[in-house]
Amino acid sequence: MKRALKAALLSRVLFLLCVFSTTRSQSCSSYTFSNNRLYSACTDLPFLNAFLHWTYYPSSGTADVAFRVNGVSISNWVAWAINPTGVGMQGAQALVAVQNSSGILQAYTSNVQTYETTLAESLLSFSVSSLSAEMSGNQMMIFATVQLPDNNTSVTQVWQVGPVTGGSPQPHAQTGDNLKSVGSVDLLSGQVASSGAGGSRETKKNVHGVLNAVSWGTLIPIGVMIARYMKVFKAADPAWFYLHSTCQTSAYIIGVAGWGTGLKLGSDSPGVVYHTHRNIGITLFCLGTLQVIALLLRPKKDHKNRFYWNIYHYFIGYTVIILSIINVFKGLDILDPTKKWKKAYIGILIFLGCIALVLEGLTWFLVLKRKKMAAPTPEKYSHTHSDIGGADEGNGYGI
Ligand SMILES: *[C@@H]1O[C@H](CO)[C@@H](O)[C@H](O)[C@H]1NC(C)=O
Ligand SMILES: *[C@@H]1O[C@H](CO)[C@@H](O)[C@H](O)[C@H]1NC(C)=O
Ligand SMILES: *[C@@H]1O[C@H](CO)[C@@H](O)[C@H](O)[C@H]1NC(C)=O
């Protein structure tokens, strides 16, 4: 299961890194609208066969816009948005066209707050009038007059195409051009600075997600399982200690890299902050660093403080595992609205959980068997009991 996930993640990252060439089937300036609509300027948007036409009115700070997507059907939704606060989908003030369940092609506005948006109808942060949608052949169009935020003709735009089920917009594809369709347009000069920005940001997010899901979310629990379940075999001493510390140290190094990419992502988009995800991430970094320092400072196994050190080490260790898993899920909710990765990660957790359950049973079986065979003195009892992972240690490396 883990291999399948890694392959899926890898292929996705490679896919995003690929360069797509867009073939332009039509130029915006040669297009004539059927209903005598005329616009003073237009641009061929670089992805998704989309076009933007507009007329800017300086005296009112408004623009008439027409957004047009070629090569779609009535079972698609299309949207064009201005994002006054950020770069991507979050915060986008969208004009949406979708055939609703009454079979009517409807145009409405949607203020996109989360990646899990269903594009529900809501008011935008600026006013929109004369909103309508039209289907002509395989083209879907949205017409509107928008009040440009801050009377600023340079706007960050996002546009999108997705499928419709039962009159409701469904999540758009999470690959290729659907992730690149962001950029800026200056309605005064007509200059379009296009994107790839969205694509590279998505790539950064994916790298962040992979690094953290692998390190905090997978390697650290495996490292704890190594310690807990190998320790019981006398033959595996001290091998388990080296495996455990190598696994956790590598996880920590990869995890810090992943944490750094997260901080960078956060600072790149000051308008969008995932407070909980960020705070848990910072807490994890602190606890993880504490564990690494504690490893170097651990008292000798027969030192009187070793008992307290062990309690501390277990407590922080299990806290890290729980917080890591919570934060991986929080991150996956942000990264992957279609839940595919979430399912893959749940698969990994179930897999690890099953292994842990079997080994837990085996460990107890072995310990109880040893206890039966050994003379049942209190001293012996306490020693074997500790092999399960109590606060004592049965070897020179107890951790
Ligand atoms: C918007 O800006 C233009 C050009 O900067 C200016 O001429 C116009 O008066 C402004 N309109 C409003 C409503 O502020
Ligand atoms: C579909 O859109 C039309 C036009 O906006 C509206 O009158 C109708 O109520 C909508 N139907 C549903 C089910 O939302
Ligand atoms: C207009 O918005 C752009 C971002 O799209 C920003 O860089 C620029 O500073 C803004 N200009 C003004 C005058 O606010």
From TrEMBL:
Domain annotation DOMON: ranges: 48-162
Membrane topology recorded in Swiss-Prot or TrEMBL: Multi-pass membrane protein
Cofactor: how and how many bound: Binds 2 heme b groups non-covalently.
Compartments, as annotated in UniProt: Membrane
Alphabetical UniProt keywords: Electron transport, Iron, Membrane, Metal-binding, Signal, Transmembrane, Transmembrane helix, Transport
Main location: membrane
UniProt cross-references to CDD domains, sorted A to Z: Cyt_b561_FRRS1_like (cd08760), DOMON_CIL1_like (cd09629)
Domain Cytochrome b561, residue spans: 168-368
SMART domains noted in UniProt: B561 (SM00665)
GO MF term set: metal ion binding
Cofactor: heme b
A GO cellular-component term linked to this record: membrane
Keyword Magnesium: no
Pfam family, one: Cytochrom_B561
Residues annotated as binding heme b: H208, H244, H277, H313
Signal sequence segment: 1-25
Transmembrane region(s): 209-227, 239-260, 280-299, 311-332, 344-367
PANTHER family named in the record: CYTOCHROME B561 AND DOMON DOMAIN-CONTAINING PROTEIN
Cited function: May act as a catecholamine-responsive trans-membrane electron transporter.
Protein name: Cytochrome b561 and DOMON domain-containing protein
Organism: Nepenthes gracilis
